[in-house]
Amino acid sequence: MGRYLVRRLNLFIATTIALITVLFITTGHFPVERPYALSGIAAPTSTQLQNITDNYQLNGNQLQQFIAYAQTRLGGDLGLSVTSQRPVIEELTQALPASFELAIVAGLIAVLLGVPLGVLASLSKNKVTQHSIMAITLTGYSIPVFWLGLTLSLWFGVELGWLPVSGRINLLYEIPPVTGFMLIDTLLWDSVYRVSAFKDAVFHIILPSITLAVLPFTVVVRITRSAMLTIMEQPYIKAAEARGLHTGTIVLRHALPNALIPVLKNMGLMLGTFASYAMIVEVIFSRQGVGSWLVSGIYQRDYTVIQGGVLGVAMIIIFFSILIEVLHTAYNPLSRKEIYAAN
């Protein structure tokens, strides 16, 4: 297992270097002067210009410039935002909790609804039930996320007026940021209105989280169903049935834990798609997160925000993808057997 972890660490380092290389090359093609693209300072003083030149080794060769760029960016210096003149790393860390909150809620919805439906689709002998569940998942998988978000906003927000369609909470509530997670900060708020503020935050996150959850929900249902169909035909399941164990006991204790292994693996594989969909959802529902912040930076030609946002999002995806793969390997005995056999 130790060698496997070292290989995963090497993969993370290699992928990060490749990402930095792409950003470094792309930065050189921005239609502005290089000091401006790197620092975000439009009109630097002579002292600032000298500091930028020294920090990024702009008088050196390409290799020296790349090493300086990598050291600066990985060291946390992402420059200043062109529009706000605030450190990009500060804006990124303020935007991340909102995106994580949306992703966590959407992921919970996908798993808590997708796994039971997948199990039902695999165990049900009713063809109508099976075909109905699979038709729902196929439809959900095919619907464009931007169309779904706009449609839900129109139906439940505009026409029915049941749910808010923008923001994270009503502007009447002034919630002091503690964790950055609005659902948590409202409960930590020292006010008699914190319960009503929490309910308002829940109402604000319902539509965007449902919109974002549709794609992983369909994947969870399909993978769970496929895994359960395979596992229920295994000899140890047949032996448990022959011993007279209740079907619910067999499913919950023996079949479902093994069926969740491929679900975990596929959730790791779709993190990139999930992140891109999250950005679209944040823009549609005007939620303050990394996606809306990065799209705003693209529109405003904020070159440092573009670099910092792409670097931050990509490294988070890489990290969690490798983390999920490690958890999958640790949880799956067959994967551990393959590792030990390779060693």
Architecture blueprint of SSEs:
Layout (H helix, E strand, L loop, with lengths): L1 H26 L6 H6 L6 H10 L6 H13 L13 H36 L3 H16 L2 H15 L22 H7 L5 H38 L3 H8 L4 H23 L1 H14 L5 H10 L3 H29 L1 H10 L1
Helix pairs in contact: 1-4, 1-14, 5-6, 5-9, 6-9, 7-9, 7-12, 8-9, 9-11, 9-12, 11-14, 12-13, 13-14, 14-15
InterPro entries: MetI-like, MetI-like_sf
Subcellular location: Cell membrane
Main location: membrane
Helix/strand order, N-terminal first: HHHHHHHHHHHHHHH
Could you name the CATH class of the domain at 94-301? Answer: Mainly Alpha
User: In whole angstroms, how far apart are the ends?
Assistant: 9 Å
Radius of gyration computed on alpha carbons:
24 Å
Number of DSSP-assigned strands: 0
CATH T-level topology of the domain at 94-301: MetI-like fold
Portion of residues in helices? over 70%
Averaged pLDDT: 84
What would you give as the CATH superfamily of the domain at 94-301?
MetI-like
**Biggest beta sheet attributes:** none
SS-derived structural category = mainly alpha
Strand content: under 5%
CATH architecture of the domain at 94-301: Orthogonal Bundle
If helices are DSSP runs of H or I spanning 4 or more residues, what is the number of helices? 15
Shape from CA axes?
globular
Low-confidence stretches: none
Written overview of the protein:
The chain has 343 residues and is mainly alpha-helical. The protein has a domain at 94-301: MetI-like (MetI-like fold, Orthogonal Bundle). Helix content is 76%, strand content 0%. It has helices at 2-27, 34-39, 46-55, 62-74, 88-123, 127-142, 145-159, 182-188, 194-231, 235-242, 247-269, 271-284, 290-299, 303-331, 333-342. Helix 6 (127-142) packs across helix 9 (194-231) and helix 9 packs across helix 11 (247-269). It starts with a helix and ends with a helix.
